[in-house]
Amino acid sequence: MSTRTRNSVHVAISIAHQSLSLITQGGDELAHYRVSTALNGPGEQNASGCTPLGGHYIRAMIGTGLPLNTVFRARRPTGELYTPELASMHPDRDWILSRILWLCGTEWGRNRGPGVDTFGRFIYIHGTPDTEPMGVARSHGCIRMRNADVADLFDRVTPGTRVIIT
């Protein structure tokens, strides 16, 4: 996909439908994925464990060229690849795998700024173990995707791509 095409798309995330779509400026759907948003539902407050609503953009993209199932901690690859054996050694870990699309809010006082800042809350679109259900709200605030799906999305967007969460 050309840079020009990448810049003419936006990401639409529906909490109600637990889905993410890549949409052209003309309104055509280029891709559609099942996702998992926050178990605590929608919300913007710091430490709420909720998925923030409204306008956002992709501020940073992390994981270029890394293999699927790469494990991240604090946005850095740990050198591990996710396996069921690794998961059994860390049963309480919230796995962030494969790619990270770090979001930044665009609406001051709603999802940007003191007490409600999406970027400061470390809200990402990221991969999760393929054993985790999609279409079911279970995350800690982020938008979880299948590893192959997040890698596909990652290759179709650029920093600055608009993201709308409803």
Automatic annotation (TrEMBL):
Key words of the record: Cell shape, Cell wall biogenesis/degradation, Glycosyltransferase, Hydrolase, Peptidoglycan synthesis, Transferase
Domain L,D-TPase catalytic: 9-166
Domain of life assignment: Bacteria
Active site: H126 (proton donor/acceptor), C142 (nucleophile)
GO biological process, one term: cell wall organization
GO cellular component, one term: extracellular region
Pathway assigned in UniProt: Cell wall biogenesis; peptidoglycan biosynthesis
Molecular-function annotations in GO: glycosyltransferase activity; peptidoglycan L,D-transpeptidase activity
InterPro entries documented for this protein: LD-transpeptidase, LD_TPept_cat_dom, Transpep_catalytic_dom
Gene3D superfamilies in the record: L,D-transpeptidase catalytic domain-like
Family: Belongs to the YkuD family.
PANTHER family, alphabetized: L,D-TRANSPEPTIDASE, L,D-TRANSPEPTIDASE ERFK_SRFK-RELATED
Name of the protein in question: L,D-transpeptidase
